[in-house]
Specification:
Length: 528
Protein backbone atom coordinates (compact mmCIF):
# COMPACT_ATOMS: atom_id res chain seq x y z
CA UNK A 1 0.00 0.00 0.00
CA UNK A 2 2.87 2.39 0.79
CA UNK A 3 4.37 1.77 -2.67
CA UNK A 4 1.01 2.63 -4.22
CA UNK A 5 0.78 5.86 -2.21
CA UNK A 6 4.35 6.82 -3.32
CA UNK A 7 3.25 6.25 -6.90
CA UNK A 8 0.32 8.61 -6.38
CA UNK A 9 2.61 11.27 -4.96
CA UNK A 10 4.86 10.93 -8.01
CA UNK A 11 1.91 11.48 -10.35
CA UNK A 12 0.90 14.55 -8.34
CA UNK A 13 4.25 16.19 -9.15
CA UNK A 14 3.67 15.58 -12.87
CA UNK A 15 -0.01 16.25 -13.50
CA UNK A 16 -1.84 19.48 -12.55
CA UNK A 17 -5.18 17.64 -12.72
CA UNK A 18 -3.94 14.58 -10.92
CA UNK A 19 -6.24 15.00 -7.92
CA UNK A 20 -9.26 14.49 -10.17
CA UNK A 21 -7.66 11.66 -12.16
CA UNK A 22 -6.57 9.82 -9.07
CA UNK A 23 -10.08 10.01 -7.64
CA UNK A 24 -11.38 8.34 -10.77
CA UNK A 25 -8.70 5.63 -10.54
CA UNK A 26 -9.53 4.77 -6.96
CA UNK A 27 -13.34 4.60 -7.05
CA UNK A 28 -16.20 5.89 -9.21
CA UNK A 29 -17.33 8.05 -6.28
CA UNK A 30 -14.49 9.13 -4.00
CA UNK A 31 -10.87 8.42 -3.30
CA UNK A 32 -10.51 5.63 -0.81
CA UNK A 33 -6.97 5.48 0.53
CA UNK A 34 -6.82 5.82 4.29
CA UNK A 35 -5.11 9.03 5.39
CA UNK A 36 -1.65 8.74 6.87
CA UNK A 37 -0.72 10.60 10.02
CA UNK A 38 -2.72 11.54 13.09
CA UNK A 39 -6.48 11.12 12.47
CA UNK A 40 -7.50 12.39 15.94
CA UNK A 41 -5.44 15.50 16.53
CA UNK A 42 -7.31 16.59 19.66
CA UNK A 43 -7.32 13.05 21.09
CA UNK A 44 -11.04 13.20 21.94
CA UNK A 45 -11.81 9.79 20.42
CA UNK A 46 -13.43 11.32 17.33
CA UNK A 47 -11.68 11.02 13.98
CA UNK A 48 -11.46 14.33 12.13
CA UNK A 49 -13.36 14.58 8.84
CA UNK A 50 -12.32 17.51 6.65
CA UNK A 51 -12.95 16.31 3.07
CA UNK A 52 -15.70 14.58 1.13
CA UNK A 53 -13.32 11.67 0.61
CA UNK A 54 -12.97 11.21 4.36
CA UNK A 55 -16.71 11.61 4.81
CA UNK A 56 -17.21 8.76 2.37
CA UNK A 57 -14.69 6.60 4.22
CA UNK A 58 -16.96 6.49 7.29
CA UNK A 59 -18.91 3.72 5.56
CA UNK A 60 -15.90 1.42 5.79
CA UNK A 61 -15.77 1.54 9.59
CA UNK A 62 -19.29 1.88 11.01
CA UNK A 63 -18.10 1.88 14.62
CA UNK A 64 -15.68 4.80 14.16
CA UNK A 65 -12.63 3.01 15.54
CA UNK A 66 -10.37 4.01 12.64
CA UNK A 67 -10.29 5.84 9.33
CA UNK A 68 -10.56 2.98 6.86
CA UNK A 69 -10.46 2.91 3.09
CA UNK A 70 -12.35 0.64 0.69
CA UNK A 71 -9.42 -1.79 0.61
CA UNK A 72 -9.59 -2.31 4.37
CA UNK A 73 -6.45 -0.32 5.17
CA UNK A 74 -7.09 1.55 8.40
CA UNK A 75 -5.46 4.26 10.47
CA UNK A 76 -6.20 4.95 14.14
CA UNK A 77 -3.08 7.00 14.89
CA UNK A 78 -3.78 9.64 17.53
CA UNK A 79 -6.78 7.88 19.03
CA UNK A 80 -6.72 7.65 22.86
CA UNK A 81 -5.71 4.43 24.60
CA UNK A 82 -9.37 3.51 24.96
CA UNK A 83 -9.78 3.82 21.19
CA UNK A 84 -11.79 6.05 18.88
CA UNK A 85 -15.57 5.72 18.80
CA UNK A 86 -16.75 8.06 16.04
CA UNK A 87 -16.12 10.97 13.70
CA UNK A 88 -16.29 14.76 13.78
CA UNK A 89 -16.54 17.41 11.09
CA UNK A 90 -13.86 20.08 11.32
CA UNK A 91 -15.22 22.30 8.52
CA UNK A 92 -18.19 22.70 6.18
CA UNK A 93 -18.44 20.36 3.20
CA UNK A 94 -20.17 20.97 -0.13
CA UNK A 95 -21.00 18.30 -2.70
CA UNK A 96 -21.01 21.07 -5.32
CA UNK A 97 -17.25 21.26 -5.09
CA UNK A 98 -16.70 23.70 -7.95
CA UNK A 99 -19.68 25.90 -7.08
CA UNK A 100 -21.16 25.85 -10.58
CA UNK A 101 -24.70 25.07 -9.38
CA UNK A 102 -24.91 21.54 -10.76
CA UNK A 103 -24.02 18.11 -9.38
CA UNK A 104 -23.96 16.08 -12.59
CA UNK A 105 -20.26 16.84 -13.06
CA UNK A 106 -19.36 15.78 -9.51
CA UNK A 107 -17.77 12.50 -8.46
CA UNK A 108 -20.67 11.99 -6.04
CA UNK A 109 -23.22 12.06 -8.88
CA UNK A 110 -22.96 8.30 -9.27
CA UNK A 111 -24.88 8.12 -12.56
CA UNK A 112 -27.70 10.19 -11.11
CA UNK A 113 -28.23 8.10 -7.98
CA UNK A 114 -26.13 10.44 -5.85
CA UNK A 115 -24.80 9.69 -2.39
CA UNK A 116 -24.87 6.09 -1.18
CA UNK A 117 -26.44 6.08 2.32
CA UNK A 118 -23.98 5.02 5.02
CA UNK A 119 -24.71 1.63 6.53
CA UNK A 120 -27.35 -0.98 5.77
CA UNK A 121 -30.09 -2.79 7.62
CA UNK A 122 -27.69 -5.55 8.65
CA UNK A 123 -24.65 -3.32 9.08
CA UNK A 124 -25.86 -0.08 10.62
CA UNK A 125 -23.85 2.97 11.61
CA UNK A 126 -23.17 2.59 15.35
CA UNK A 127 -20.84 5.42 16.29
CA UNK A 128 -20.80 9.12 17.11
CA UNK A 129 -21.01 11.67 14.32
CA UNK A 130 -20.26 15.12 15.74
CA UNK A 131 -21.02 17.98 13.36
CA UNK A 132 -19.45 20.69 15.55
CA UNK A 133 -21.97 23.17 14.14
CA UNK A 134 -20.78 22.63 10.56
CA UNK A 135 -22.87 22.19 7.43
CA UNK A 136 -23.03 19.52 4.76
CA UNK A 137 -24.33 21.28 1.66
CA UNK A 138 -26.08 19.92 -1.41
CA UNK A 139 -26.53 16.31 -0.35
CA UNK A 140 -28.30 14.61 -3.25
CA UNK A 141 -29.80 11.10 -3.19
CA UNK A 142 -32.11 9.68 -5.85
CA UNK A 143 -32.85 6.07 -4.94
CA UNK A 144 -36.62 5.87 -5.29
CA UNK A 145 -36.64 2.06 -5.37
CA UNK A 146 -34.57 1.67 -2.20
CA UNK A 147 -35.65 1.52 1.43
CA UNK A 148 -33.74 3.08 4.35
CA UNK A 149 -32.60 6.17 2.46
CA UNK A 150 -30.88 9.22 3.92
CA UNK A 151 -27.37 10.48 4.63
CA UNK A 152 -27.31 7.45 6.93
CA UNK A 153 -29.26 4.36 5.96
CA UNK A 154 -29.79 2.86 9.44
CA UNK A 155 -28.62 4.01 12.88
CA UNK A 156 -28.35 1.67 15.84
CA UNK A 157 -26.81 2.73 19.15
CA UNK A 158 -25.50 5.90 17.50
CA UNK A 159 -25.28 9.62 18.22
CA UNK A 160 -25.58 12.35 15.58
CA UNK A 161 -25.44 15.95 16.77
CA UNK A 162 -24.72 19.60 15.96
CA UNK A 163 -25.10 19.37 12.19
CA UNK A 164 -26.84 21.27 9.37
CA UNK A 165 -28.00 19.78 6.06
CA UNK A 166 -28.74 22.52 3.54
CA UNK A 167 -28.20 23.61 -0.06
CA UNK A 168 -30.30 24.61 -3.05
CA UNK A 169 -29.28 21.41 -4.88
CA UNK A 170 -30.04 19.13 -1.96
CA UNK A 171 -32.82 16.56 -2.37
CA UNK A 172 -33.51 13.07 -1.07
CA UNK A 173 -35.66 10.54 -2.95
CA UNK A 174 -36.37 7.10 -1.52
CA UNK A 175 -39.02 4.44 -1.16
CA UNK A 176 -39.94 3.36 2.39
CA UNK A 177 -38.14 4.68 5.47
CA UNK A 178 -36.73 7.87 4.00
CA UNK A 179 -35.38 11.01 5.70
CA UNK A 180 -32.74 13.63 4.99
CA UNK A 181 -30.54 12.50 7.90
CA UNK A 182 -31.47 8.84 8.32
CA UNK A 183 -33.89 6.34 6.87
CA UNK A 184 -34.41 4.24 9.98
CA UNK A 185 -33.40 4.11 13.64
CA UNK A 186 -33.53 0.67 15.22
CA UNK A 187 -31.87 -1.45 17.86
CA UNK A 188 -30.10 -4.79 18.28
CA UNK A 189 -29.93 -5.03 22.07
CA UNK A 190 -31.97 -3.80 25.02
CA UNK A 191 -29.15 -1.51 26.15
CA UNK A 192 -28.89 0.30 22.79
CA UNK A 193 -29.50 4.04 22.85
CA UNK A 194 -29.57 6.42 19.88
CA UNK A 195 -29.49 10.22 20.10
CA UNK A 196 -30.28 12.77 17.38
CA UNK A 197 -29.58 16.26 18.70
CA UNK A 198 -29.26 19.78 17.29
CA UNK A 199 -29.68 18.84 13.65
CA UNK A 200 -31.12 21.32 11.17
CA UNK A 201 -32.31 20.39 7.69
CA UNK A 202 -33.77 22.24 4.71
CA UNK A 203 -33.58 19.24 2.36
CA UNK A 204 -36.73 18.29 0.47
CA UNK A 205 -37.61 14.63 1.01
CA UNK A 206 -39.81 12.48 -1.23
CA UNK A 207 -40.69 8.86 -0.55
CA UNK A 208 -43.54 6.42 -0.21
CA UNK A 209 -44.13 5.19 3.35
CA UNK A 210 -42.49 6.28 6.62
CA UNK A 211 -41.14 9.55 5.27
CA UNK A 212 -39.80 12.35 7.47
CA UNK A 213 -38.03 15.64 6.98
CA UNK A 214 -35.19 14.35 9.17
CA UNK A 215 -35.95 10.73 10.13
CA UNK A 216 -38.03 8.22 8.20
CA UNK A 217 -38.74 5.54 10.79
CA UNK A 218 -38.00 4.84 14.45
CA UNK A 219 -38.86 1.28 15.50
CA UNK A 220 -37.58 -0.02 18.84
CA UNK A 221 -37.83 -3.40 20.51
CA UNK A 222 -36.66 -2.78 24.06
CA UNK A 223 -34.23 0.18 23.87
CA UNK A 224 -34.16 3.98 23.89
CA UNK A 225 -34.03 6.79 21.34
CA UNK A 226 -33.84 10.52 22.03
CA UNK A 227 -34.68 13.10 19.35
CA UNK A 228 -33.75 16.48 20.84
CA UNK A 229 -33.65 20.12 19.68
CA UNK A 230 -33.91 19.55 15.94
CA UNK A 231 -35.52 21.70 13.27
CA UNK A 232 -36.74 21.11 9.72
CA UNK A 233 -37.72 23.67 7.08
CA UNK A 234 -38.49 21.70 3.95
CA UNK A 235 -40.98 20.07 1.63
CA UNK A 236 -41.79 16.51 2.72
CA UNK A 237 -43.88 14.27 0.50
CA UNK A 238 -45.02 10.65 0.71
CA UNK A 239 -48.07 8.43 0.84
CA UNK A 240 -48.38 6.93 4.33
CA UNK A 241 -46.86 7.95 7.66
CA UNK A 242 -45.43 11.28 6.59
CA UNK A 243 -44.13 13.91 9.03
CA UNK A 244 -42.22 17.18 8.95
CA UNK A 245 -39.62 15.73 11.35
CA UNK A 246 -40.28 11.97 11.46
CA UNK A 247 -42.65 9.75 9.56
CA UNK A 248 -43.28 6.72 11.76
CA UNK A 249 -42.49 6.20 15.45
CA UNK A 250 -43.10 2.78 17.02
CA UNK A 251 -42.20 1.75 20.54
CA UNK A 252 -42.94 -1.92 20.19
CA UNK A 253 -41.95 -3.62 23.41
CA UNK A 254 -41.67 -3.29 27.15
CA UNK A 255 -38.70 -1.11 28.17
CA UNK A 256 -38.78 0.70 24.82
CA UNK A 257 -38.72 4.46 25.34
CA UNK A 258 -38.76 7.15 22.64
CA UNK A 259 -38.44 10.78 23.66
CA UNK A 260 -39.05 13.55 21.10
CA UNK A 261 -38.31 16.87 22.82
CA UNK A 262 -37.89 20.51 21.75
CA UNK A 263 -38.25 19.89 18.03
CA UNK A 264 -39.84 22.17 15.45
CA UNK A 265 -40.84 22.18 11.81
CA UNK A 266 -41.89 24.88 9.39
CA UNK A 267 -42.58 22.68 6.41
CA UNK A 268 -45.00 21.78 3.66
CA UNK A 269 -46.00 18.18 4.33
CA UNK A 270 -48.01 16.16 1.83
CA UNK A 271 -49.33 12.61 2.10
CA UNK A 272 -52.39 10.40 2.08
CA UNK A 273 -52.91 8.82 5.51
CA UNK A 274 -51.22 9.45 8.88
CA UNK A 275 -49.76 12.84 8.02
CA UNK A 276 -48.50 15.34 10.58
CA UNK A 277 -46.61 18.62 10.75
CA UNK A 278 -44.02 17.06 13.08
CA UNK A 279 -44.78 13.29 13.12
CA UNK A 280 -46.91 11.13 10.89
CA UNK A 281 -47.79 8.71 13.68
CA UNK A 282 -46.74 7.78 17.20
CA UNK A 283 -47.49 4.17 18.13
CA UNK A 284 -46.95 2.16 21.29
CA UNK A 285 -47.63 -1.52 21.89
CA UNK A 286 -46.65 -4.37 24.20
CA UNK A 287 -45.34 -2.06 26.92
CA UNK A 288 -43.81 0.65 24.74
CA UNK A 289 -43.73 4.34 25.74
CA UNK A 290 -43.48 7.42 23.53
CA UNK A 291 -43.23 11.00 24.79
CA UNK A 292 -43.44 14.10 22.62
CA UNK A 293 -42.97 17.41 24.42
CA UNK A 294 -42.22 21.00 23.39
CA UNK A 295 -43.02 20.38 19.74
CA UNK A 296 -43.84 23.32 17.47
CA UNK A 297 -45.05 23.42 13.89
CA UNK A 298 -45.85 25.96 11.21
CA UNK A 299 -46.43 25.62 7.49
CA UNK A 300 -49.01 23.43 5.77
CA UNK A 301 -50.10 19.81 6.20
CA UNK A 302 -52.19 18.15 3.49
CA UNK A 303 -53.56 14.59 3.36
CA UNK A 304 -56.60 12.36 3.12
CA UNK A 305 -57.26 10.87 6.55
CA UNK A 306 -55.68 11.10 10.03
CA UNK A 307 -54.08 14.45 9.35
CA UNK A 308 -52.88 16.77 12.13
CA UNK A 309 -50.99 20.02 12.51
CA UNK A 310 -48.53 18.32 14.89
CA UNK A 311 -49.25 14.57 14.69
CA UNK A 312 -51.35 12.62 12.24
CA UNK A 313 -52.22 9.75 14.55
CA UNK A 314 -51.69 8.54 18.11
CA UNK A 315 -52.23 4.80 18.48
CA UNK A 316 -51.66 2.38 21.32
CA UNK A 317 -52.77 -1.16 22.09
CA UNK A 318 -52.05 -3.41 25.05
CA UNK A 319 -53.57 -6.19 27.12
CA UNK A 320 -50.86 -7.26 29.55
CA UNK A 321 -48.13 -4.60 29.66
CA UNK A 322 -48.51 -0.90 30.46
CA UNK A 323 -48.58 1.27 27.31
CA UNK A 324 -48.41 5.05 27.28
CA UNK A 325 -48.26 7.96 24.83
CA UNK A 326 -47.76 11.49 26.16
CA UNK A 327 -47.98 14.79 24.30
CA UNK A 328 -47.28 17.97 26.26
CA UNK A 329 -46.25 21.63 25.96
CA UNK A 330 -46.73 21.59 22.21
CA UNK A 331 -48.22 23.98 19.68
CA UNK A 332 -49.35 23.82 16.07
CA UNK A 333 -49.92 26.90 13.94
CA UNK A 334 -50.43 25.30 10.55
CA UNK A 335 -52.88 25.17 7.70
CA UNK A 336 -54.34 21.66 7.92
CA UNK A 337 -56.16 20.43 4.83
CA UNK A 338 -57.82 17.01 4.92
CA UNK A 339 -59.63 15.55 1.96
CA UNK A 340 -61.21 12.88 4.18
CA UNK A 341 -61.93 12.11 7.84
CA UNK A 342 -60.20 12.55 11.21
CA UNK A 343 -58.54 15.92 10.76
CA UNK A 344 -57.26 18.03 13.68
CA UNK A 345 -55.40 21.25 14.33
CA UNK A 346 -52.98 19.40 16.64
CA UNK A 347 -53.73 15.67 16.18
CA UNK A 348 -55.79 13.97 13.49
CA UNK A 349 -56.85 10.84 15.36
CA UNK A 350 -56.33 9.21 18.75
CA UNK A 351 -56.91 5.43 18.94
CA UNK A 352 -56.70 3.24 22.05
CA UNK A 353 -57.36 -0.47 22.44
CA UNK A 354 -56.75 -2.72 25.43
CA UNK A 355 -57.63 -3.43 29.03
CA UNK A 356 -58.59 -0.85 31.62
CA UNK A 357 -55.55 0.39 33.53
CA UNK A 358 -53.15 -0.82 30.84
CA UNK A 359 -53.34 1.74 28.04
CA UNK A 360 -52.93 5.48 28.63
CA UNK A 361 -52.84 8.51 26.34
CA UNK A 362 -52.39 11.96 27.81
CA UNK A 363 -52.38 15.37 26.11
CA UNK A 364 -51.55 18.32 28.37
CA UNK A 365 -50.50 21.96 28.14
CA UNK A 366 -50.86 22.08 24.37
CA UNK A 367 -52.77 24.22 21.91
CA UNK A 368 -53.48 24.75 18.24
CA UNK A 369 -54.04 27.96 16.32
CA UNK A 370 -54.32 26.03 13.06
CA UNK A 371 -56.89 26.62 10.34
CA UNK A 372 -58.46 23.20 9.83
CA UNK A 373 -60.43 21.85 6.87
CA UNK A 374 -61.78 18.32 6.53
CA UNK A 375 -64.84 16.21 5.81
CA UNK A 376 -65.98 14.23 8.87
CA UNK A 377 -64.59 14.22 12.42
CA UNK A 378 -62.84 17.58 12.28
CA UNK A 379 -61.62 19.43 15.37
CA UNK A 380 -59.64 22.54 16.22
CA UNK A 381 -57.38 20.38 18.40
CA UNK A 382 -58.26 16.71 17.64
CA UNK A 383 -60.34 15.19 14.86
CA UNK A 384 -61.48 11.99 16.60
CA UNK A 385 -60.80 10.15 19.85
CA UNK A 386 -61.63 6.43 19.74
CA UNK A 387 -61.28 4.88 23.18
CA UNK A 388 -61.79 1.16 23.84
CA UNK A 389 -61.75 0.51 27.60
CA UNK A 390 -58.69 2.68 28.22
CA UNK A 391 -57.64 5.93 29.89
CA UNK A 392 -57.65 9.14 27.85
CA UNK A 393 -56.84 12.54 29.36
CA UNK A 394 -56.71 16.01 27.87
CA UNK A 395 -55.93 18.85 30.27
CA UNK A 396 -54.90 22.49 30.17
CA UNK A 397 -55.22 22.78 26.41
CA UNK A 398 -57.11 24.90 23.90
CA UNK A 399 -57.77 25.67 20.23
CA UNK A 400 -58.30 29.03 18.53
CA UNK A 401 -58.31 28.28 14.80
CA UNK A 402 -61.17 28.15 12.32
CA UNK A 403 -62.65 24.69 11.71
CA UNK A 404 -64.76 23.60 8.75
CA UNK A 405 -66.11 20.28 7.52
CA UNK A 406 -69.24 18.27 6.88
CA UNK A 407 -70.18 16.09 9.88
CA UNK A 408 -68.91 15.95 13.48
CA UNK A 409 -67.14 19.30 13.40
CA UNK A 410 -66.18 21.13 16.60
CA UNK A 411 -63.91 23.76 18.11
CA UNK A 412 -61.83 21.34 20.23
CA UNK A 413 -62.59 17.67 19.45
CA UNK A 414 -64.67 16.64 16.47
CA UNK A 415 -65.89 13.25 17.66
CA UNK A 416 -65.58 10.94 20.67
CA UNK A 417 -66.28 7.25 20.03
CA UNK A 418 -66.26 5.13 23.19
CA UNK A 419 -66.78 1.41 22.90
CA UNK A 420 -66.41 0.13 26.47
CA UNK A 421 -65.97 1.38 30.02
CA UNK A 422 -63.22 3.83 29.23
CA UNK A 423 -62.01 6.51 31.59
CA UNK A 424 -62.10 9.88 29.83
CA UNK A 425 -61.10 13.18 31.39
CA UNK A 426 -61.49 16.56 29.66
CA UNK A 427 -60.30 19.26 32.05
CA UNK A 428 -59.51 22.96 31.80
CA UNK A 429 -59.88 23.35 28.05
CA UNK A 430 -61.54 25.87 25.75
CA UNK A 431 -62.26 26.56 22.09
CA UNK A 432 -62.60 29.88 20.26
CA UNK A 433 -62.40 29.33 16.50
CA UNK A 434 -65.41 29.55 14.20
CA UNK A 435 -67.02 26.17 13.48
CA UNK A 436 -68.78 25.44 10.18
CA UNK A 437 -70.36 22.13 9.25
CA UNK A 438 -73.22 20.71 7.23
CA UNK A 439 -74.55 18.30 9.83
CA UNK A 440 -73.48 17.65 13.45
CA UNK A 441 -71.44 20.49 14.95
CA UNK A 442 -70.46 21.65 18.43
CA UNK A 443 -68.70 24.45 20.24
CA UNK A 444 -66.30 22.20 22.17
CA UNK A 445 -67.22 18.65 21.05
CA UNK A 446 -69.73 17.80 18.32
CA UNK A 447 -70.70 14.27 19.34
CA UNK A 448 -69.96 11.58 21.92
CA UNK A 449 -71.02 8.04 21.10
CA UNK A 450 -71.11 5.01 23.39
CA UNK A 451 -70.92 1.99 21.09
CA UNK A 452 -73.42 3.05 18.42
CA UNK A 453 -75.78 5.09 20.59
CA UNK A 454 -75.71 8.35 22.51
CA UNK A 455 -73.62 8.54 25.64
CA UNK A 456 -75.83 7.54 28.64
CA UNK A 457 -76.10 9.93 31.57
CA UNK A 458 -74.71 7.38 34.02
CA UNK A 459 -71.54 7.20 31.92
CA UNK A 460 -70.88 10.93 32.22
CA UNK A 461 -71.22 10.71 35.99
CA UNK A 462 -68.18 8.50 36.38
CA UNK A 463 -66.35 7.37 33.27
CA UNK A 464 -66.51 10.54 31.17
CA UNK A 465 -65.62 13.63 33.17
CA UNK A 466 -65.64 17.19 31.88
CA UNK A 467 -64.09 19.65 34.31
CA UNK A 468 -64.26 23.42 33.78
CA UNK A 469 -64.13 23.34 29.96
CA UNK A 470 -65.68 26.07 27.84
CA UNK A 471 -66.36 27.33 24.36
CA UNK A 472 -67.08 30.82 23.05
CA UNK A 473 -70.65 30.93 21.76
CA UNK A 474 -69.93 34.10 19.77
CA UNK A 475 -66.66 33.32 17.99
CA UNK A 476 -67.46 29.63 17.38
CA UNK A 477 -71.00 30.55 16.29
CA UNK A 478 -72.18 27.49 18.18
CA UNK A 479 -74.91 27.46 20.84
CA UNK A 480 -74.52 23.80 21.79
CA UNK A 481 -71.89 21.15 22.44
CA UNK A 482 -71.82 17.49 23.45
CA UNK A 483 -69.94 18.56 26.57
CA UNK A 484 -68.66 21.76 28.16
CA UNK A 485 -70.29 25.13 28.80
CA UNK A 486 -70.65 28.06 26.44
CA UNK A 487 -69.93 31.68 27.35
CA UNK A 488 -69.54 35.02 25.60
CA UNK A 489 -66.21 36.64 24.76
CA UNK A 490 -66.59 39.12 27.59
CA UNK A 491 -67.31 36.40 30.12
CA UNK A 492 -64.32 34.31 29.05
CA UNK A 493 -61.91 37.25 29.04
CA UNK A 494 -62.96 38.99 32.24
CA UNK A 495 -61.38 36.83 34.98
CA UNK A 496 -57.89 37.88 36.06
CA UNK A 497 -57.58 34.77 38.22
CA UNK A 498 -59.64 31.60 38.81
CA UNK A 499 -63.08 32.37 40.24
CA UNK A 500 -62.69 36.17 39.92
CA UNK A 501 -65.78 37.49 41.76
CA UNK A 502 -65.70 40.86 39.97
CA UNK A 503 -66.89 39.17 36.77
CA UNK A 504 -70.47 38.26 35.88
CA UNK A 505 -69.47 34.63 35.41
CA UNK A 506 -67.10 33.10 37.92
CA UNK A 507 -65.03 30.85 35.71
CA UNK A 508 -61.83 28.84 35.67
CA UNK A 509 -62.19 27.16 39.06
CA UNK A 510 -59.38 24.63 39.38
CA UNK A 511 -57.26 26.34 36.74
CA UNK A 512 -53.73 26.92 38.05
CA UNK A 513 -52.14 30.36 37.75
CA UNK A 514 -48.77 28.61 37.53
CA UNK A 515 -49.94 26.98 34.27
CA UNK A 516 -52.22 29.69 32.89
CA UNK A 517 -51.63 33.41 32.35
CA UNK A 518 -55.02 35.15 32.72
CA UNK A 519 -53.74 38.51 31.49
CA UNK A 520 -56.07 41.49 31.48
CA UNK A 521 -59.89 41.53 31.31
CA UNK A 522 -59.57 41.96 27.52
CA UNK A 523 -57.52 38.79 26.99
CA UNK A 524 -58.21 35.07 26.98
CA UNK A 525 -56.09 32.82 29.22
CA UNK A 526 -52.96 31.46 27.60
CA UNK A 527 -50.49 28.81 28.64
CA UNK A 528 -47.35 30.05 30.32
Amino acid sequence: MKVFQQFLQFLTTLLPLSSILLSLILTPVFAGAANSGDVDLDNDGLIEIETLEELNQMRYNLFGTSLTDEYGDSNSEGCPASGCFGYELVNDLDFDTNGNGTLSDELSWNNGSGWVPIGTGRNSFSAVFEGNGHTIKNLYIRRSEDNNVGFFSVLVNATVRNLSLTGTLAKVYGNNDTGSLVGQIGNRNFQDSTVIKNVYSTISVIGKSDVGGLIGNITLWGSNTYVLNNRVEAVVQGSWYVGGLVGYVYSAMEDSFISIEHNSSNSFVYGQDNVGGLAGALLGQHGGYVKLTYGETEGRVTGNSKVGGLIGRLYTRGYTELNALDVSNSHANTRVIGRGNNIGGLIGMVEMYGEDGIVFIKIVKSYASSIVEGVNNVGGLIGQVRDDDDSFTIEDSYATGKVSGSDNVAGLIGYFYITKFSTVRVARTYALGSVRGSYQTGGLVSKITYHSSSLPSWYTDGYFRNIASYWNIETTRQTSSATGTGYTSEELKCPRFPGDSTCMARLYYGWSSSIWNFGTPTEYPTLR
